[in-house]
């Protein structure tokens, strides 16, 4: 079977706990790597180049766009943010499953340019639980919480464009579900071109 | 999540060992049931109605066709063979994953009328290994083996219409792969209509 890693695109409602799931997954298994974004904004105190982001000039970013070097990119508040293809490809070639935590619009774009990507949507078991978690954080104003829930309503429309929807009720179960989904995905024909072609070529001698 | 079982359509090259995989899967896990075919042919000595087949008259079979009661059916040598919908649906409702061992043409037909079915193709790791297994049985003439290998060549063209291709190198590994593929498939959006609709309805209150 092919040894190449899988590009794992993870989205989910704000409050679904996807950050925690990703961290735990990285802790438990060696075969995952986080995608590092490139940005044209300046590093904030404590941020490291090649760890938090690849920090580059506006010119370098635009040159990379022109060279078709991004899986996806966007501009927010005058700064560019994007996913560099080269970094992702190197990790995939090395057999790592590369995790990209991204919102729904970005995920759809990735699937278009990279059909072998695996799109996973993390959700709490119910809307009630989502509300409870957002309120339970105790760090956000009612207004922010209301905005996130409204956003969740909008995003729920796109849930079924994902390959898998995984419920985060119990963290460890969710992490195992994401892991087995990734393992199983290696056996989908779109990720087995090499194996299928080999088998066909070998069987031709019996034609 | 939905408690309904999954219709598991299993195909593979003759000699891939799919019969053994299915038997071992049934032995290890309670949640699988074999689909029982209906036929208009007479029972052979030792065959039991409701175990090996549902044995019915030609008239009854044709009535079932007219009532759209089959997932698929075909006529071989003057006898009908088919997969009755009612039996499959009852098992699925009871939460069983129903296994249907069927060749590639039948599998494609099932997927058309039953898009939530999960199509798994079992293959040996290489054509060489397939040849070795067919010869190793020691029960078939060279002519029959050549015919099976030619058939495998023809069938290899359809491998990528399956949802998953699972290599049967080591039996236990293969059985576990089929099982986790089935478990993971429960999280695909096409099998989560109920959950997705519920979530959307619940989130509407935050709109």
Description:
2 copies of one chain form a homodimer. With 207 residues, the first copy, chain A, is of the alpha/beta class. Chain A folds into 2 domains: 1-31 and 98-207, Rossmann fold (3-Layer(aba) Sandwich), CATH 3.40.50.300; 36-94, 2-Layer Sandwich (Guanylate Kinase phosphate binding domain), CATH 3.30.63.10. The first copy, chain A, is 43% helix and 20% strand. In chain A, the strands form 2 sheets. A 5-stranded parallel β-sheet of chain A has the order 2-7-1-8-9, with helices on both faces. In chain A, strands 4-3-6-5 form a 4-stranded mixed β-sheet. The model of chain A has no long low-confidence stretch (mean pLDDT 92). The interface between A and B is large, with 44 and 44 residues.
Task: Reconstruct the topology from this structure.
2 copies of one chain form a homodimer.
Chain A: E1 7-12, H1 18-28, E2 32-34, E3 38-39, E4 54-55, H2 58-66, E5 70-76, E6 79-84, H3 85-93, E7 97-101, H4 104-113, E8 118-123, H5 127-136, H6 142-156, E9 164-167, H7 171-185, H8 193-203
Parallel strand pairs in A: 1-7, 1-8, 2-7, 3-4, 8-9
Antiparallel strand pairs in A: 3-6, 5-6
Helix pairs in contact in A: 1-7, 5-6
Keywords:
homodimer, 207 residues, alpha/beta, Rossmann fold, Guanylate Kinase phosphate binding domain, 2 domains, five-stranded parallel β-sheet, four-stranded mixed β-sheet, 9 strands, globular
């Amino acid at each position: 079977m092919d040894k190449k890693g899988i590009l794992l695109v993870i989205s989910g409602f704000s409050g679904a706990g996807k950050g925690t799931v990703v961290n735990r997954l990285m802790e438990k298994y060696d075969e995952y790597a986080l995608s590092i974004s490139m940005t044209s904004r300046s590093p904030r105190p404590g941020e490291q180049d090649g760890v938090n982001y690849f920090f580059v000039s506006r010119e370098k970013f635009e040159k990379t766009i022109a060279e078709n070097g991004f899986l996806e990119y966007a501009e927010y508040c005058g700064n560019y943010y994007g996913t560099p293809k080269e970094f992702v490809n190197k990790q995939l070639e090395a057999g790592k499953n590369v995790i990209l935590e991204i919102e729904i619009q970005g995920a759809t774009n990735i699937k278009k340019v990279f059909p072998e990507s695996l799109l996973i949507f993390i959700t709490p078991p119910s809307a009630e639980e989502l509300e409870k978690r957002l309120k339970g954080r105790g760090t956000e104003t009612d207004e922010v919480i209301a905005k996130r829930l409204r956003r969740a309503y909008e995003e729920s429309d796109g849930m079924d464009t994902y390959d898998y929807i995984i419920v985060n009720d119990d963290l460890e179960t969710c992490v195992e579900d994401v892991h087995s989904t990734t393992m199983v995905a290696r056996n989908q024909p779109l990720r087995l071109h090499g194996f299928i072609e080999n088998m066909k070529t070998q069987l031709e001698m019996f034609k």
